[in-house]
Structure formats: C-alpha cells, structure tokens
C-alpha cells in the first residue's frame, strides 16, 4: 500500500493543486489517470478538499492510499481529507439551480464507502473506491453500493 499526503492551504485555488497532485499519485502507482474511475477519484478529491477549505476556511491535509502496482486485482483506493474543524459533515440536498450543496451527495453516489471520524481537534472525511468488482473480477466498481445507512457515524479504523 502506498500512502501519501499533501498539505492544502485555506485558499480555494488549492483545490486545483490537490487535483493535479492526485493525478500524479495515480500515475506513479501505475493507474492510468485518464481511465474513468481515475477521473472519479479526482472528482472525489476535488469535492472533499473543496468542502474542507470552503467550510472551515482553514488548511487541510489530503491523504491518498493506493495499492501497489501489479496483480490481477489492484485493490481499493482511499481518499481522506483532515481539517481542524470538529463540526461533523452535514450533507444537504441542493434544490434546482443552487450552485452549492451537492458535494457530499456526489461523494455518496460515486464512492463505494465513505464516512468521517474525529481526528485530534478536528475530523477526517474519507471515501473508498474498490478497483475490483466481485462480478467482473477486475476493473473499477465506483458507486456500486455507495455508503450504507449510518455512514456518517465516526469510523474506528483509518487503514484501508
């Protein structure tokens, strides 16, 4: 398992830097950054980092855990963003033309699992994408089961 992290400043412009960094991490681990599920992971990075920066106005830490290259089943990718706000995430449903309020809905729809947990004086919000589908044996299966009810309960485990 390859685990890397990036410190993200409180500036919303940092979201683009986080996306570029995540693409480099994918390429460095042998994942083609242009394949559809890699694009899904980049979107998840974008949503979680945006939420942390916009809703807290403080720096955050982006962590990505990638399985090592090789093997028929490349495993699970985990994206986690830690910030210094202890306030739990509050999913909302954006109506009509609203431009905000869809981030956690996207995470819920695209990730296989997601949740949050307290971390120090703040919290970490995480999501996972399974790169192997049990039916197909290989490939990405993002969104195939999203989060189960109660996914917003703090999780006890950090490891993927």
Task: Describe this entry's structure for a reader.
Strands 1-2-3-5-4 form a five-stranded antiparallel β-sheet, covered by helices on one side. Strand 4 (113-119) and strand 5 (122-130) form a beta hairpin. By secondary structure, it is an alpha+beta fold. The chain is globular, with a radius of gyration of 15 Å. 28% of the residues lie in helices and 24% in strands. It has three helices and five strands; from the N terminus they run βααββαββ.
Distance between the termini: 9 Å
Q: Counting H and I runs of at least 4 residues, what is the number of helices? A: 3
Helix content: 25-40%
Instruction: Let me know the number of strands.
Output: 5
Low-confidence spans: pLDDT under 50, at least 5 residues? Answer: 134-160
Mean pLDDT: 79
Overall, the morphology is: globular
Largest sheet: 5 strands, antiparallel
Strand order of the largest sheet: 1-2-3-5-4
Rg is 15 Å
Order of helices and strands: EHHEEHEE
The fraction of residues in strands falls at 15-25%
Counting helices, strands and paired strands, the structural category is alpha+beta
What descriptive keywords fit this protein?
globular; disordered C terminus; 160 residues; single chain; alpha+beta; 5-stranded antiparallel sheet; 5 strands
Strand and helix layout:
Blueprint: E1 2-8, H1 14-28, H2 36-56, E2 60-66, E3 76-83, H3 103-110, E4 113-119, E5 122-130
Antiparallel strand pairs: 1-2, 2-3, 3-5, 4-5
Helix pairs in contact: 1-2, 2-3
Please summarize what this structure is.
With 160 residues, this protein is of the alpha+beta class. The chain has helices at 14-28, 36-56, 103-110, and strands at 2-8, 60-66, 76-83, 113-119, 122-130.
């Amino acid at each position: 398992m390859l685990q890397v992290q990036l410190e993200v400043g409180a500036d919303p412009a940092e979201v683009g830097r986080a996306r570029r960094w995540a693409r480099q991490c994918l390429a460095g681990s042998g994942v083609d950054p242009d394949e559809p599920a890699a694009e899904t992971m980049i979107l998840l990075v974008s949503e979680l980092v945006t939420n942390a920066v916009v809703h807290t106005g403080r720096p955050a830490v982006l962590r990505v855990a990638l399985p090592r290259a090789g093997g028929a089943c490349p495993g699970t990718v985990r994206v986690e963003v830690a910030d210094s706000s202890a306030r739990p995430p509050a999913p909302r449903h954006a109506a009509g033309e609203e431009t905000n309020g869809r981030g956690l809905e996207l995470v819920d729809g695209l990730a296989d699992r997601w949740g949050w947990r307290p971390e120090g004086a703040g919290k970490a919000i995480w999501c996972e994408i399974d790169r192997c589908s049990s039916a197909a044996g290989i490939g990405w299966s993002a969104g195939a089961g999203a989060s189960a009810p109660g996914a917003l309960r703090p999780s006890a485990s950090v490891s993927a």
